[in-house]
Amino acid sequence: MVRYVYDFTEGGRDMADLLGGKGSNLAEMTRLGLPVPPGFTVTTEACRAFLETGSEPEGLWEEVSAHLAGLEASAGRSLGQPDDPLLLSVRSGAKFSMPGMMETILDIGLNDDSVLGLAKVSGNERFAWDSYRRLVQMFGSTVMGVDSSRFERSLALLKDLRGVQDDVHLTASDLAELVETYKNLIHLETGDHFPQSPAEQLRRAILAVFESWNGERARLYRRREHIADDLGTAVNVQRMVFGNLGADSGSGVAFTRDPATGRSGLYGDYLPDAQGEDVVAGIRNTVPLAELKRLDARSYDGLRTHMRTLERHYRDLCDIEFTIERGTLWMLQTRVGKRTAEAAFVLAAELADEGLITPDEALARVSGEGLARLMFPRFDASATDTALAHGVPASPGAAVGTVVFDSAQAVRRAAAGEKVVLVRQETTPDDLPGMIAAQAVLTSRGGKTSHAAVVARGMGKVCVCGAEELTVDTEARRFTAADGTVVEEGTVVSVDGSAGAVYAGSVPLVDSAVIRYLEDGRGGGGSQGVDVVDAVARALARADTVRRLEVRANADTPEDAVRARRFGAQGIGLCRTEHMFLGDRRKLVEQMILAGTDAERDRALADLLPLQRRDFVGILEAMDGLPVTIRLLDPPLHEFLPDHTELAVRIATAQARGEEPDAHDVALLGAVNRMHEENPMLGLRGVRLGLVVPGLIAMQVRAIGEAVTERLSAGGAPQAEIMVPLVGDVRELRLVRAEVQRVLAEISRAAGVVLDCPVGTMIELPRAALTAGRIAEEAEFFSFGTNDLTQTTWGFSRDDVEAEFFSAYLDKGVFSTSPFEALDREGVGRLVNIAVAEGRATRPDLKIGVCGEHGGDPDSVHFFHTAGLDYVSCSPFRVPVARLEAGRAALEETEGSDSR
């Protein structure tokens, strides 16, 4: 028989698949002897069974009842008993942290009778009614489906009537009145009554948490964070402890290190006389955790001891929730804390220095995505005026956008291409769509542990919280700064998540310290602990030591090649020759296209030759001693001609004025019409163009060969490779290779040198992948062009479909991410694997790389490592990202083989 419920004393941190992250960590803290209120976990397996059938799994309630009886026996009181009730919390807990995305119900067990008993036994009537109104509010919205804003409006109205700002100033009679208001609201909205049976409350609460797994905000968060939809959530049922019992009670959230910077120390927020949800929701501004030392030194010292225990046990930054009930400290949750990219690198380096983790573990704990964030520009401090306001630097970075005051507006404007900053008093889980759409989040309430801060850090969004100097009026759609400045919706502001400041207008940007280091080796100059630049340098050095994949760059100019080499590129994997035909040289291409005779075409090609040769000399010099893969002309020739409409308008305008149209325009229009294709990306381009236009291949190969010869004469060590694009059949490559060898042989004889320029091809058509064994007979190397291979495998035109329906596909779960961002492993990846296997079966020493955009995508780099490629190639700015991920991929492979 399947078991669905585990006591906290029965689990451990290695059971997250079954008990969820929260449940497994509660069990682990219990095992460590920390003060954890007793409870039990309903497994993810029970959730999946419920979601599959729509009904409670057989035997579940019997197991829950048995564990509840154990709780009641240990507490010496029963759930909801009238004189001294046992009260419970019901919280979600998926395998992967999803802060605020699913449901929590506190104070299960209170009803019209037990609230009186709680008031008597606690000696605090206000506390009892405050707990009851929280239960009715949470249960009404979470379980019974009443819009939560209806409860918030009732609460706000009561505070206005009593003339108070905060909930804590409402009296016991006020709260008793509010409970009745809430219960009437539930009956009015649902036709049902708030249940007085504690057992019914518990049962319905557990099932409601299950159902919240498929709630809109939970599904949206999973798509954003690439969390699988079929995992389900566990449910944790725990004895309530109360932080809202007066001045000697309270709740807080703590981090063992700063989640924004990674620096050592005690960080967090504390809220006296409050339950934990108040801290996370940000509805009241908290005090720094250090203030707890003055308020309750014994609890503060106990918390520090427990935090050290947890950090050393988990060997990582720990995020901890705690409650103090009348001077007694209780640990309610721990998890490995979300952190910014900067904090991830600094923390990994410091933990390695402290001997808690190895250098390889430090590398495994950072990511290429995080490194990319650190390479983003920052605000120019010298160009900033006085800030409108300062707040808590919750998630670093620099963002500029127009102010919006609700999630729906943020989504609408962002979809129209506008960059926006979402401004709220505090965010709630319902604001998730707007947070995803926004460049930055700014709140007037909350701290580093508020919902806005935690979610923004997890998504890598810029965030400033608790900017108390701002008065945010969401109804009037504006905020007012302390100096009286009024900022209306649509106004541009700049948000500095690193400094915790917001500025009027658009502040100029400068390169990040990490970019400066990569460009010229300058460090960040940090004075406390490990500097982020030092941490990045260490991670990259370790990655370079362990990685098998080489990392090259896509570069078309000497300037790009120089930058790529500084960033650690080990060559150029893609040099696009078509980019050398733009600008003033476009006229020479036009002459070649319009040539009426072989002689005219030869003259145009002869004029292009020295220009191409000079480009190649510069790139080969910048990459001296390293391979440079030069792709022959790829796009259709019509891309080098003027726009059809532009030409037609010019000709028609001249004719309308009675003038003779320009003869060159007429000739160009004729060429454009002649070359028109319904689907040019599948037409006359790539190898087909080289085989159809006489002399084109010879001109480009001659420019390459002569550039190599010139560099050899100058004492260089050029390593040019010639790549033929869009090959679909080995016979195409055989014809081109014969032409390449003929031209190189001519140059060799004339210069008296040996030219060794390997000839290979791009694998960017499904047919090429499926016939790779034959193609390898002629190719000395393969390079996967995954952009085109994705287009031709899926039947997508990237230029058209991303705007047309990709957003719908992402919303409906057809994609978890765009196949142009992360490689489609099932389809395109399978073609890659086939081509690698068959190509090397023919030619065992076949060099294989990738030069599409996927070469710089962290997830795709791991696939290419596993597939056995020799190198990845990407844009210069992605080279450090690829280096890091190539190292992490090698470590994953080692760990996998060790586990086997």
From TrEMBL:
<dbReference type="Pfam" id="PF01326">
    <property type="entry name" value="PPDK_N"/>
</dbReference>
<protein>
    <recommendedName>
        <fullName>Pyruvate, phosphate dikinase</fullName>
        <ecNumber>2.7.9.1</ecNumber>
    </recommendedName>
</protein>
<keyword id="KW-0067">ATP-binding</keyword>
<feature type="domain" description="Pyruvate phosphate dikinase AMP/ATP-binding">
    <location>
        <begin position="295"/>
        <end position="343"/>
    </location>
</feature>
<keyword id="KW-0479">Metal-binding</keyword>
<dbReference type="InterPro" id="IPR040442">
    <property type="entry name" value="Pyrv_kinase-like_dom_sf"/>
</dbReference>
<keyword id="KW-0460">Magnesium</keyword>
<dbReference type="Pfam" id="PF00391">
    <property type="entry name" value="PEP-utilizers"/>
</dbReference>
<comment type="similarity">
    <text>Belongs to the PEP-utilizing enzyme family.</text>
</comment>
<dbReference type="InterPro" id="IPR018274">
    <property type="entry name" value="PEP_util_AS"/>
</dbReference>
<keyword id="KW-0547">Nucleotide-binding</keyword>
<dbReference type="InterPro" id="IPR013815">
    <property type="entry name" value="ATP_grasp_subdomain_1"/>
</dbReference>
<keyword id="KW-0808">Transferase</keyword>
<dbReference type="InterPro" id="IPR010121">
    <property type="entry name" value="Pyruvate_phosphate_dikinase"/>
</dbReference>
<dbReference type="InterPro" id="IPR036637">
    <property type="entry name" value="Phosphohistidine_dom_sf"/>
</dbReference>
<keyword id="KW-0418">Kinase</keyword>
<dbReference type="InterPro" id="IPR008279">
    <property type="entry name" value="PEP-util_enz_mobile_dom"/>
</dbReference>
<feature type="domain" description="PEP-utilising enzyme C-terminal">
    <location>
        <begin position="537"/>
        <end position="887"/>
    </location>
</feature>
<dbReference type="InterPro" id="IPR000121">
    <property type="entry name" value="PEP_util_C"/>
</dbReference>
<dbReference type="GO" id="GO:0050242">
    <property type="term" value="F:pyruvate, phosphate dikinase activity"/>
</dbReference>
<feature type="domain" description="PEP-utilising enzyme mobile">
    <location>
        <begin position="418"/>
        <end position="500"/>
    </location>
</feature>
<dbReference type="InterPro" id="IPR002192">
    <property type="entry name" value="PPDK_AMP/ATP-bd"/>
</dbReference>
<dbReference type="InterPro" id="IPR015813">
    <property type="entry name" value="Pyrv/PenolPyrv_kinase-like_dom"/>
</dbReference>
<dbReference type="Pfam" id="PF02896">
    <property type="entry name" value="PEP-utilizers_C"/>
</dbReference>
<keyword id="KW-0670">Pyruvate</keyword>
<feature type="domain" description="Pyruvate phosphate dikinase AMP/ATP-binding">
    <location>
        <begin position="57"/>
        <end position="285"/>
    </location>
</feature>
